[in-house]
Amino acid sequence: MASQDPREERVRQAYDTVATEYAAAIRDELAGKPLDRALLAAVAEMAAGGTVADIGCGPGHVAAHLAGLGADVVGIDLSRSMVEIARADHPQVRFEVASMTDLPQADGSLAAAVLMYSIIHLGPADRDRTIAELRRVLQPGGIALLAFHIRSEEFQPGDVNRLTTWFGHSVDVEGYFLEPEVVLDDLERHGLDIVSVMTRMPHPQVELPSERAYVLAQRPVS
After folding, report:
1. What share of the chain is helix, strand, coil (3-state, %, to 5)?
2. Coiled-coil segments, which residues (predicted)?
3. Domains in the chain: how many in total?
4. How far apart (Å, rounded) are the C-alpha atoms in residues 57 and 116?
């Protein structure tokens, strides 16, 4: 079913359009990201055998990496084309088409969730709904890892990158650069505790040249 949110529908259409090229560009990216791998290993360990959702999973490489660490994983993405690629590349992992603002998971059903750069297309209202959903689906003590861009040579925190061409295709999608404190406030407003905040500069030749943040948050046990 098509999204009823025009902004979300533009995101879905953009990723459906570039899915093949996008997957080819990033499916092996974790090989050059040792800090990301370390954080994902921590998430898998902290989940302690419970279900981990990779929300905004794209072509499924992060979900597959978590599964390789022994986690019970489900990948979720708005783009049906992305999910089709993920299922073909990683048949051992479950993938679902769904919106992060309206997750299909039951209340308290997840031990952990990872949102690796998947909040970057969300305006404040959609980000608020996503974090409310995140708290709902996490079990007490459940953890969430969020990664996002802070700044680049062209953009500062709070700026919006409006893409009209991507991988040679015409698209209409926005990417947000976020100050970590803004995301921390969003998480805390929805009752999630901040466990850890890390920022880093980009790995040369591997990824978009931006400073980025990684936030680990937890739903309180009580």
Report:
1. 35, 30, 30
2. none
3. 1
4. 8
Quick one: 160 exposed, middle or buried, by C-beta within 10 A (0-12, 13-18, 19+)? exposed
- The CATH number linked to 86 is 3.40.50.150
Alpha carbon distance 143, 147 (integer Å): 13
pLDDT in tens, 79-103: 999 999 999 999 999 999 999 999 9
Domain assignment of residue 17, yes or no: yes
Percentage, residues of the chain above pLDDT 70: 98
What are the pLDDT digits (tens) for 69-79?
999 999 999 99
Task: Determine the structural domain holding residue 64 and report its residue range.
Answer: 6-162+172-218
| Beta-strand pair 51-55/72-77 | parallel
17-63 pLDDT tens trace: 999 999 999 999 999 999 999 999 999 999 999 999 999 999 999 99
